[in-house]
Amino acid sequence: MAIPHSRPTLGQYQAGAVAAVIASGQVAQGAMVERFEKAFAAFCGRRYAAAVSSGTAALHLTLKALGIGPGDEVVAPSFVCSALLNAIGLVGASPLIADIQPWTYNIDPSDVARRLTSRTRAIIAPHMFGLPVDMDGIDALGLPLIEDGAQALGAGCRGRKVGGLGIASVFSFYATKVITTGEGGMVVSDSAKLIKTIKDLRDYDSRRVFKVRGNFKMTDMQAALGLVQLQRLPAFIARRRQIAQAYGRQLAVLGLTPPHDTEARIYYRYVVNIPRGLSALIRKMAAAGVSCARPVFCPLHRLLKRQGYEVTEKAWRSGLSLPIYPSLGEDGVAAVVNALSASLRA
Predict the structure, then answer these.
(1) Please, are residues 306 and 19 in contact by the beta-carbon 8 Å criterion?
(2) Cβ(318)–Cβ(301) under 8 Å?
(3) Alpha-carbon span 297 to 113, nearest angstrom
(4) How buried is 136 (Cβ within 10 angstroms: 0-12 exposed, 13-18 middle, 19+ buried)?
């Protein structure tokens, strides 16, 4: 049986929760979304939350609510998915792309510092692959922080959970994220004004005063799924760490270096450095029934046709993401290790 690179972890409790919402007849945004918002804000140690239709929508609406637009710059790392680039573009701002730190794969504050201009308005800092960002370095830059916790829900940072830092924090609940609602996202903040503005922007209906809004709502079906997933999060994180530890023991035998580890991280992705032949190795693994991938499909500087970004380039050319998700059993872990060993020898 083929092993996918990613897959959601779902079961009877999630199915039952969604079925109950369907039976109630209230399937669009309603009381269940409010419950999910309150539970999620409390989990992150925040006062307020706004559920939306995707992680990209969460970031887009946050930027818009902060008044960021044409003529402004927003900092983002290059080694990240294009959702950040799209959100920045949707408000008419310009992306200020920064390089990353080696081994952590997170945004490099020192590289950001040398690129800042008088037009830079905010920094988006994703905690890549479940490893928290160097927040001391980010704080020293003196700009508003939007924390991107899409890959690090449940991780720790400065004695708090990811999601508790910055002017706002955004999350994605896409099918393969740490928890899922199928599609969906969340903004959490301690600013009542910011969250009120985002809730206004997410829904255009029944308004006496017109301004450009959208339909970025979450459904009660999604929220019911999210509530059960949030309850299961500690078990999800524990299983991810078990798999990471099993991989780590085997990587030493294969002469590969495990990812940078701290107690604060969760293993959303398990990325190892392959010095050469990455594309060929991915094909060999696929032939052996194991789907692996570059952890970022295409860095932002490549999409924008910008030169430089040496650390990001190296990470993109050598980073291999192995399957790691809670429903991956011991037989699956062994199959991944065996396929990797055989593919490296071939």
Answers:
(1) no
(2) no
(3) 26
(4) exposed
Q: How far apart are the C-alpha atoms of 88 and 143, rounded to whole Å? A: 16
Predicted pLDDT at 308:
93
| DSSP run (H or E) holding 3 | none
CA distance 229 to 96: 35
Task: Please name each of the domains of the chain with its CATH number.
Answer: 12-229 (3.40.640.10), 234-345 (3.90.1150.10)
Q: Which of 37, 92, 57, 35 is nearest to 170 (CA)?
A: 57
Residue 328 CA to residue 66 CA, distance in Å, equals: 40
Residue 203, judged by CB atoms within 10 A of its CB (0-12, 13-18, 19+), counts as middle
Which pair of structure tokens corresponds to residue 233? 């999060």
Q: According to the model, what pLDDT value does residue 206 have?
A: 85
Which residues are registered as beta bridge partners of 145?
123
First to last CA, the chain: 21
Going by DSSP bridges, is the β-strand pair 73-77/120-126 parallel, antiparallel, or unpaired?
parallel
Backbone Cα Rg of the chain: 20
Please name the residues in contact with 317: beta carbons below 8 A apart, sequence gap of 6 or more.
278
Please choose, from the candidates 189, 324, 319, the residue with its C-alpha nearest in 3D space to the C-alpha of residue 245.
324
Residue 186 phi, psi (nearest 5): -150, 145
- Please tell me the distance from the alpha carbon of residue 242 to that of residue 211, in angstroms, as a whole number: 50
d(CA 99, CA 77): 6
Cα-based distances in Å from 273 to 12, 294, 314, 317: 37, 10, 9, 9
Q: What are the φ and ψ backbone dihedral angles of 49, each rounded to 5 degrees? A: -150, 150
Which residues, in sequence order, are bridge partners of residue 335? none
Block mean pLDDT (10 aa), the chain, length 346: 92 93 94 98 98 98 98 98 98 98 95 97 97 92 96 90 95 97 98 98 90 94 98 97 94 87 92 94 97 97 96 97 97 95 89
The pLDDT of residue 252 is: 83
Helix segments in 25-108, DSSP class H: 31-44, 55-65, 83-90
Q: What is the pLDDT of residue 251?
A: 85
Structural tokens at position 344? 């490296």
